[in-house]
Design a protein that fits this description.
This protein is α+β, with helices and mostly antiparallel strands and about 500 residues long. The protein starts with about 30 loop residues before the first strand and ends with a strand.
């Protein structure tokens, strides 16, 4: 579903820290890069796109550029088309200052009025944007002058910049072009990014060409980008190994390892949190803590990693990576088969047999995770697991309906904000487990509102303790926001949730 890294071409083995050696020489202009994404967008409207590596990140960055990016190691926010994003009242209000002279490809100015139009539109529920959970924190926007926008939040959030960086609010489209309607806009989208649309053949390819008026000259270095999409992990890798692609967006530890072994430069974003088995605490069986504890104690996460990722994944035994300032040695789950069976038996004796459906997307990895969980739990008495497979297009409706027992969701982060609050707070619409615990909510609020690192660390320690005690989710793997490149492609940089910056790419021809 939420780190501009000065990462450069490097191999990653899935377990060691990423090292960086850097591309040899200076960037060379020219060339066409063939990039394979995971999902084709339903529209080129930025409000309908998702700024995450597994969705439309590289395309959105190409058409619209970025207001801000952030650093993968420190979480520091870096300004791009924004000149500054500041608060003087501990996050109650912010002032966004834009660079001078920004222009959309339709000739209109990218000014404070345009940002206000886009942000107000995203936070309007009628728009149906996937970024509404971040934009909904905005109470009002006010144009101060052509380059300055004042933003008032519904509650103080000192680190609100991270919400802008990781979502669709980072992409600004021309209001004049959007006013023409979706069909006209999809034919001629107008942003201020490094590339413009030449053509879009649905279910085939998207052709982009260099924007000669891009603000950060001499970028972009490439002349053209050809984008294709497939959700088949092995098909994407096959395209790279056969010479049919220059850049591949990846999400599977298994194919990442295969690409590395084949000699292709590979980058993986080292994010905390990860992908999780999310249990719906609003209804049986997982409204009973014992059922959740039994599942967590029964599962062998190493076995799941072996069956799904050939043992090449990273298992999040702790919520934060050891390099994070928020790391605490608090195990999220521990396997204990005897305890699991005791809990399953106890629930069955009370007429609460643990029987549930695992709903997973049709793509290979989610299906394999569901099958691993089903197979492992089949070794226990008094627990039944069914699997329901849905298309990726059904996911949003499923999340909205809350009609599920278990599914896969994620909380990906460098800084805890905004993801941890969004995923685990009782008042968040994106809290898919539905758990609302007063102590957990209070700690998440304190971590969000505090400007003191010591106070934030203390608050997030409580968060980790409560997640371990209440088990609304079982984190089973670190996410793998990854990009693999041909040997002659350099300059790959990622930010946010593995969002690839196409203006940095260059090819040695």
């Amino acid at each position: 579903m939420a780190c501009a890294a000065a990462l450069v071409t490097a191999a990653c083995n899935g377990h060691a820290a990423i090292t960086s050696t850097g591309p040899a020489g200076d960037p060379v202009p020219g060339g066409t890069a063939r990039i394979i994404m995971i999902n084709e967008p339903r529209s080129l409207d930025p409000a309908a796109m998702s700024n995450a590596w597994a969705f439309n990140a590289v395309l959105g960055n190409a058409l619209y550029g970025t207001l801000m990016t952030n650093d993968v190691q420190t979480g520091r926010v870096d300004q791009q088309m924004a000149e500054s994003f500041t608060t003087k009242d501990k996050g109650a209000t912010f002032e966004l200052k834009l660079r001078a002279g920004l222009t959309f490809t339709d000739g209109a100015p990218l000014d404070a009025h345009a940002v206000k139009f886009n942000w107000d539109r995203i936070r309007n529920p009628a728009t149906g944007s996937s970024s509404i959970r971040d934009a909904a924190m905005v109470a009002s926007t006010e144009v101060v002058d052509a380059r300055t926008l004042k933003i008032a939040l519904r509650m103080p959030i000192p680190n609100y910049a991270h919400s802008v960086v990781a979502g669709g609010m980072n992409w600004i489209a021309s209001p004049k072009a959007l006013a023409k309607g979706q069909r006209a806009y999809d034919a001629a989208p107008a942003g201020a990014g490094p590339f413009t649309l030449r053509s879009w053949d649905r279910q085939d390819k998207i052709m982009l060409v260099k924007n000669p008026r891009y603000w950060d000259a001499p970028k972009p270095y490439l002349d053209r980008i050809e984008l294709r999409s497939t959700s088949d992990t092995m098909q994407r890798l096959s395209s790279l190994t056969s010479g049919g692609a220059d850049v591949v967006v990846d999400t599977s530890w298994k194919s990442i390892d295969k690409a590395r072994k084949a000699g292709f430069p590979t980058q993986v974003m080292p994010l905390s949190g990860g992908q999780a088995l999310t249990m719906n605490t609003r209804r049986p069986p997982f409204n009973d803590l014992r059922a959740r504890q039994a599942i967590a104690a029964a599962l062998d996460l190493d076995a799941t990693d072996l069956s799904v990722y050939n043992g090449k994944g990273k298992i999040p035994y702790r919520l934060f990576t050891e390099t994070s300032p928020f790391y605490e040695d608090i195990p999220l789950t521990r396997q204990d088969k005897k305890t699991a069976q005791k809990l399953f038996d106890q629930l069955a004796a009370e007429g609460k047999r643990v029987s549930f459906t695992f709903t997973a997307q049709t793509s290979p990895d989610p299906r394999a995770v569901a099958e691993s969980v089903q197979a492992q739990l089949s070794a226990f008495r008094n627990v039944d697991v069914k699997i329901r497979i849905i298309a990726s297009a059904e996911t949003a409706a499923l999340f909205a309906s809350r009609d599920y027992d278990m599914l896969i969701s994620s909380a990906l982060m460098v800084d805890p904000e905004p993801q941890l609050w969004t995923v685990h707070h009782g008042r968040s619409s994106a809290n898919y487990s539905g758990l609302s615990d007063p102590q957990l909510n209070a700690a998440l609020d304190k971590g969000r509102l505090s400007t003191s690192m010591a106070e934030r660390k203390a608050a997030y320690k409580v968060v980790q303790e409560r997640l371990a005690a209440l088990v609304p989710v079982v984190y089973y793997t670190r996410a793998a926001p990854a990009v693999e490149t041909a040997g002659n492609v350099h300059g790959a940089r990622l930010y946010g949730f593995g969002s690839l910056l196409p203006e940095e790419l260059w090819m040695r021809r």
